[in-house]
Structure formats: C-alpha cells, structure tokens
Amino acid sequence: MTEPAPVVAITGGGTGIGAAAAERFAREGWRVAVVGRRPALLDAVAARTGALPVTADAADPRQAAGAIATILEAYGRLDAVVANAGGHGFATLEATTDEDWAASLRGNLDSAFVFLRAAVEPLRRARGSVVVVSSLAGLAAGPSTLGYTTAKHALIGLTRSIARDYGNDGVRANAICPGWVRTPMADAEMDEFAAAAGLPDRATAYRTVTADVPLARPAEPAEIADVIHFLASPASSYITGAVLPVDGGADSVDLPTTAFARAGM
Predict the structure, then answer these.
(1) From 148, 166, 206, 238, active-site residue
(2) 143, 202: one domain
(3) 60 and 107: one domain?
(4) What is the pLDDT of residues 126-155, one digit of tens each?
(5) What are the two backbone dihedrals, phi and then psi, of residue 129, each rounded to the nearest 5 degrees?
(6) 206-260, pLDDT tens digit by residue?
(7) Helix axes 184-197, 202-209, angle to 10 degrees
(8) Is 166 one of the catalytic residues?
C-alpha cells in the first residue's frame, strides 16, 4: 500500500512567506492546509495550490482546536506545522500602550503557542515537525519595534522548549529568522521608509536597508519557503532546537565596522 502524502498546516498562510511555503510544499506532493483570518486570501492560495483553506485565528484556543479538527477530518493526519502568523508591535516602550503590547504578543507569540498546543497530539502520532517563523528581530533589536522584537525573541524560547520536551516523542522543532523579505508587510514598511527618507521608490528603499547585508538584497518569499520545507522534511531528520538565520548574512555583520566598509577600507 502506498504511504499517504504528508500533511502540513501553515498559519498566516494567505500571503507572503506563508503563501510561498504552501506553494513549495504543494510542489513536493504534500497535502497542505493554509490557516488564517482572511478567507479571500486563503481561497486565492488554495486555487493556486490545491490547499485546504481553513479560516481561523491561530491565537484563539477554540478556533485553533477547530482548525486542527478540520484538517484531521480532511486529511486524517498532521505531519508538520509551520507557525508563520505574525505582525504588530512597531513602537518604542513609552509609545506602546497596553492594547498595543497585548496585540503584539497575541499576533506573534500566542498565534504560535496556541496553535501548536492544539496540534501537539497529532504531531506526536506522526513523529512530526514544527517550523516556527521568528525573525532577525528575534536575534537583535531594530528601532521602534519593542513588541515585535520581544515576541520574536520569545518564539525562539518556545521552539527550543518544544524541541526539548517532545524530542523523545520524535517531534522536531526548529526556528528560522528571516531578514528583509519582499512581502506585502515589508513592502508597506519600505513605502513608509522611502517617504520618510526622501527616497524615490520602494526599490531604492530595499537597496538602502540591505546595503550593509553581505548579499546586499532582500530575500524572495520562495527562498524562505525552501528553508521551511527543508526543516519540515525528513531531509533534516537530525536537526531540532536549531535557530537558523535566513538573512543574507545580516546577523554576521559587525555593525561598528560598517563605516570602514563605506570608506573602502
């Protein structure tokens, strides 16, 4: 009897990295469920990939449990979860209200914690894999990103705790930390940055923010999706608890020496 194709659930699956991951897994023959709060975006990804669209807030315990039940009813198993939902939290400490703080943690951290908690039993049965999408902001702080940076750091702790607690069950958990990626969220940030810096367009803004990155460019969502697929697949069977920057080398740069590079030294 032929082994059934593996199943992956991707939160934040309607756009950006999540949508690119759905396309990558579908090309590899996985059965895909895309989970998110905006059904029109999920339906568009489903039309391109054959994925199952599941409208749910990953941070809501009842909706997360319902999403897992829907996926199991449709596919009978769950082999991997990509915890990709995120956003919110772009302000300094004094400018962050209680409501802003709660939204930052809910959108970035709770969305992973709650959904993965709902998924842990089928992942155990499948000896499955978790890929958490953190950020370069999970390793270092940018300006005016208090809530986002705090939550993305916490996602790394969540990943390592899952790896530690469920490794004996065969469940692996790894985190990736993307740098700048051409997504709708990043495009909006580039438009805002271009306007504030007096730059002519979005492309110039991307070139400016990646000027000190060794590869000197942003990533495409498909490049991040390739790494996600690798970490979810049996090709990475002895990798767990890892935190992998996918940032064009940004995290390897010694910031105080960038002035020397600009001077041609």
Answers:
(1) 148
(2) no
(3) yes
(4) 999 999 999 999 999 999 999 999 999 999
(5) -135, 145
(6) 999 999 999 999 999 999 999 999 999 999 999 999 999 999 999 999 888 887 7
(7) 90
(8) no
